[in-house]
Amino acid sequence: xxxxxxxxxxxxxxxxxxxxxxxVAPAIHYSAxxxxxxxxxxxxxxxxxxxxxxxxxxxxxxxxRVKAVMATLEGTETALVTGSGMGALTxxxxxxxxxxxxxxxxxxxxxxxxxxxxxxxTRFGVELSLVDQTDTQxxxxxxxxxxxxxxxxxxxxxxxxxxxxxxxAQTAKAHGILTLADNTFASPANQQPHALGVDIxxxxxxxxxxxxxxxxxxxxxxxxxxxxxxxHTHVTVGxxxxxxxxxxxxxxxxxxxxxxxxxxxxxxxxxxxxxEHPRVGGVVYPGLDCHPQFDLACRQMRGFGGVLTFRVxxxxxxxxxxxxxxxxxxxxxxxxxxxxxxxxxxTMWGGTRTQCADGNDIPGDLIRxxxxxxxxxxxxxxxxxxxxxxx
Length: 391
Ligand code: PLP
Fold this sequence. Notes:
Helix content: 25-40%
Strand content: 15-25%
CATH superfamily of the largest domain: Type I PLP-dependent aspartate aminotransferase-like (Major domain)
Bound molecules: pyridoxal-5'-phosphate
Number of strands: 14
Low-confidence stretches: none
Distance between the termini: 52 Å
Number of domains: 2
């Protein structure tokens, strides 16, 4: 399947079906456990990794479908599903790391990823170096003899700095180090880290893949060998995607390429229009040619995603009023759904005090706008009225 519009619909055809499953829409297998037909069958169910009909923490027929679609979208051999994006990250890193190993990550990560890295993993004896992701050579300089994994996130939440994924992956490979990329912000429609050399691609499926703000889920896309290794930890960690959320994710992913095309278009238009607004002090969006890494964005991304940030010239109070005065986006700390959301960033990040998600360096006049698929003229009119009323 050459096109993601087709792959997102057909990627799971024939997977996990049996002669009784003739529905055009997939069935939800809402069972925590499956019965064996005889003792031989039971022995197989109990010992074959990722068996889809044994015990739902180990696997489930709906999981099988999601895994097949996601591996196709990210171009990997296979995938695993988890109960959240953080479940995907935690499970993967716990599977790959031991006390005494060294990890290189970025100074900027999603705040819970930052907590996982520089609070939780370091408590278990993992060494951590944080580098400026915009300085590609910094990753190579941070490599030690015991470096096992490099963690990437591009664009990074919330200031949308980019990482040169292909360069870092190449350096890592030359040193036998695994790379893990959180592709949530870009989504596989816009960026495929595996094609750029990354070993493991993770997602918060709660965002663009689900697309409707109604499920919590995570995905790990990788090789068969790494998936098997990670799956053994997954079964222990127990971050399980519920069959209902797996089904919702499957349903969401069918329209993901269409939604993403609209989101990309809306966000680029809104970023351009906002840049010209007299009350706006600067817009950060990887698709704007004023973004400091615009060339890199064009090299590694096909579209630039739905998240943009901008500063309000009149300062902190005015920025808070803009968010409060918006009529279309609700004030909520997520992204990737059909409806737009907006937040005053410092309010959300203000309590964050980890090394790689420091709320102190978030400007008080910064707004994060996560664009949905509403009509661009309605979004623009609404945002402009909120800016005017904030004065
Ligand atoms: N990665 C990124 C970039 C995120 O923005 C988020 C959540 O906002 C996560 C991971 C965690 O995902 P979840 O909330 O599904 O655990």
